[in-house]
Write a structure and sequence with these properties.
Elements: H1 2-5, H2 9-20, E1 28-35, E2 42-49, E3 67-72, H3 81-96, E4 109-115, H4 120-127, E5 131-136, E6 139-143, E7 149-153, H5 163-166, H6 174-186, H7 190-206, H8 208-217, H9 223-282
Parallel strand pairs: 3-4, 4-7
Antiparallel strand pairs: 1-2, 2-3, 5-6, 6-7
Helix pairs in contact: 2-7, 6-7, 7-8, 7-9, 8-9
Length: 283
């Protein structure tokens, strides 16, 4: 569907991570879709500490070392053992292709795999070879690997601590939406508000019925926020209206065909009647 094709999960995810780690804004750099080498292989998000002593208070970022590879899987993506090895290979390629020999130590690289739901089967497979430690709600650390790794299940994260990441869902409820909008309204920095706007635009599109309900109520929403959301909903309504009009045209076409068939049947019935009368007169 056209609506699905417009969905841009990854930009909203990268923005969510920047807002998650907002307290360390000055101490981190973010490279989106970092090219590993000349081949078309890209890391979703590479987070680098500017200062090795940077302390990250966010419980997801507390795991980070100097160079942190983050792979995000949208609700439409599958996560399995092959996904695990693919992300692991990203870290190996990054380590081997960044300049001088051992310029980046393997002990200074982490891997974070993030998805909405807990990958139970994958964790079960990994548990056979590695130690898995649950460091918090939705945060699973895997020990004993070549690189430290954590798997984040967004849906299990603490609701009030991870508003931005938890908003990346098709199944947002009213309370969650109001928390997201409240956090957006509370941002003072224009750059942060612009980043948050990317997330609000995405989720208002994906959860359009819910946001239409909020806009129609509107008592907790500023006019500026309404104006930001309404174009998205308006565009969605236009797409749906076009689809409904297309369906109506098809139904009208079918109705015309059925009427034409009925006319033909009536004509045949009349011819049969006339033929029967003619036969009667001959007898």
């Amino acid at each position: 569907m056209e609506i699905e094709n417009r969905t841009q999960w990854h930009p909203a995810f990268c923005t969510s991570m920047e807002l998650e780690l907002i307290e360390n804004r000055k101490g981190l750099t973010y490279d989106r879709e970092y090219n590993l080498n000349s081949e078309p292989l890209r890391i979703d998000l590479l987070i680098i500490k500017k200062d090795p002593n940077e302390v990250i208070r966010n419980e997801i970022g507390a795991f980070f070392l100097g160079y942190n590879i983050v792979e995000y899987k949208s609700p439409d993506d599958k996560v399995n053992i092959d996904t695990f090895y693919k992300v692991l290979s990203y870290a190996c390629l990054y380590k081997s292709d960044t300049g001088a020999v051992d310029e980046i130590l393997d002990t200074d690289i982490t891997i974070t795999l993030i998805r909405e739901k807990k990958p139970k089967k994958l964790l079960g497979q990994l548990a056979k070879e590695y130690q898995i430690i649950k460091r918090g709600k939705g945060i699973y650390q895997i020990s004993g690997m070549l690189f430290p790794m954590q798997i984040i299940a967004i849906k299990e994260l603490e609701r009030n601590q991870h508003v931005w990441l938890r908003s990346l869902t098709r199944s947002m409820d009213l309370v969650q939406a109001e928390e997201l909008l409240s956090n957006y309204e509370g941002l003072q920095n224009d750059e942060d508000r612009a980043k948050a706007g990317v997330i609000v635009n995405l989720v208002s599109d994906i959860n359009s019925a819910l946001f239409e309900q909020i806009v129609s109520g509107g008592e907790k929403m500023s006019e500026a926020l309404k104006k930001m959301i309404l174009p998205e909903l308006g565009e969605l309504k236009l797409v749906l209206a076009d689809k409904e009009a297309e369906i109506a045209d098809k139904e009208a076409e079918i109705a015309d065909k059925e009427a034409e068939i009925a006319d033909k049947e009536a004509e045949i019935a009349e011819l049969k009647r006339m033929l029967a009368e003619a036969r009667g007169e001959l007898v």
